[in-house]
Amino acid sequence: MDEHTNTTHTVTTKKLPNSRIEITVSLSAEEFDATRSLALKRIGADVELPGFRKGHIPEKILLAKIGAAALLEEMAEIAIGKVYPKIIIDKKLDVLGRPEVSITKIAHGNPLEFTLTTAIFPEYTLPDYKKIATKIGVEKFAVVVNDEDIDKTIEQIRRMRAQQEAEALGHEIDETVSLPDIDDAYVQTLGAFKTVAELKEKLRENILVDKTREAKDKKRVAIMEAIVADTKIELPEVIIAQELLRMEDEFTADVSRMGIDFAQYLQKLGKTKEDMQKDWRPDAEKRATIQLLIGKIADAEKIEPSHELIEKEAKALRERYPDAEEDRIHSYVHMLLTNEKVFEFLESQTGK
Questions:
Q1: Residue 37 and residue 41: Cα distance in Å, rounded?
Q2: Among residues 161, 165, 244, which one has the least CA distance to residue 199?
Q3: In this structure, are residues 102 and 17 in contact, taking their beta carbons and an 8 Å threshold?
Q4: What does the pLDDT look like over 127-161, one tens digit per residue?
Q5: Which residues, 6+ apart, have CB-to-CB distance to 89 below 8 Å?
Q6: What is the arithmetic mean of pLDDT over 327-348?
Q7: Coil vs helix vs strand at 87
Q8: Complete DSSP assignment for 15-46
Q9: Which domains does the chain show, CATH number per domain?
């Protein structure tokens, strides 16, 4: 617990679990009463009485109309609004979201006492992420394309040919009959291929690209999971809620692209939005933790995507999602580009 006394107020802070803090404030009677005239002005601006213009109602008549309690509440709102930013600066608090306010003592001519409970940016220490990245980086993530991979893709093409032939005859695929073979003539209808051998070689190249990307993603996940495992951090609920909202936006966009309404999708599953959020929560906590760590690594290493690249990617995303809010597009693009640069930095540690 930490206590701080100002000439006009006393502040005591107490850390709570899950990166929350309780701020207890006692505001002097002088500072509290100093808000009275402004409170009357604000209230008077909204009150209508026959025979008086808005904002020009005599004080006694206005007080008789609104009551002493309403004036005290307005005074408290003004006083708290003024002192809260000062407390944040004086205490160097990295707060998140709006605070919960509880007034414990309020009366004319007396100190105003209240508590503020709010989430704060979690305090934690980064582990030796360069060492972790180096260790994971030297591990082998095998990338092999074998004949079985080619055969599976060829079978998909054979099934596609069977489907085309069945549709041409106006019936369904006969599952009791073997799939048609792939010959050079059919292959030539699929693209710039002359033979089955050429098709298989192109398939091998494409599968290699896909597997290489998958291996790269696995390595990145392994690096971040190792960093997370070596970090002690308490996530505030507001950060988890933000990540859940982001996941909901992504999921809604995905089902919308398939021509499905999100509400109808939930109804078909027999689930509510709350059920989905409960299912997503473990992943949301993990994603939020990783994002915090990436952000801190970016700050530590002064990693920042260029303004030009952000604008370019934001423009492309805006064309895909014209109804999305501009701020959210920029925030999302900045996050994605920063993540990519941080991962590239971590991957570069291999062998150092």
A1: 6
A2: 161
A3: no
A4: 999 999 998 877 777 788 899 999 999 999 998 88
A5: none
A6: 90
A7: helix
A8: EETTTEEEEEEEE-HHHHHTTHHHHHHHHHTT
A9: 2-120 (3.30.70.1050)
What the block records as the tokens of 28 is 């002097």
The residues, any chain, with a CB within 8 Å of residue 192's CB and separated by 6 or more, are: none
- Cβ atoms 116, 103 nearer than 8 A: no
Structure tokens at 225: 């999971």
Chain centroid to CA 98: 17
Task: Using DSSP, state whether 317 is helix, strand or coil.
Answer: helix
The token pair that represents 344 in the structure block:
């590239």
- Say if CB 349 and CB 128 are below 8 A apart: no
Q: What percentage of the chain carries pLDDT values higher than 70?
A: 96
Q: Which residue has the higher pLDDT, 294 or 3?
A: 294
**What would the DSSP string read from start to end of 190-213?**
TSS-SSHHHHHHHHHHHHHHHHHH
Which residues lie below 8 Å from residue 277, measured CB to CB, with a gap of 6+?
Answer: 244, 248, 284
Convert the pLDDT of each residue in 279-288 to its tens digit: 999 999 999 9
- Quick one: average pLDDT of 174-194? 85
Residue 23 tokens read as: 């701020």
Backbone angles phi, psi at 18, to 5 degrees: 55, 40
Residue ranges in 170-272 assigned as alpha helix (H)? 184-187, 196-229, 237-257, 262-269
Q: Pick from 11, 26, 12, 25: which is nearest to 110 by CA?
A: 26
Q: Where does 92-195 have alpha helices with state H? A: 129-137, 147-169, 184-187
Long-range contacts of 146-152 (CB under 8 A, 24+ apart): 149/204, 149/207, 150/200, 150/203, 150/204, 150/207
- In 3D space, the residue among 135, 101, 138 whose CA is nearest the CA of residue 118 turns out to be 101
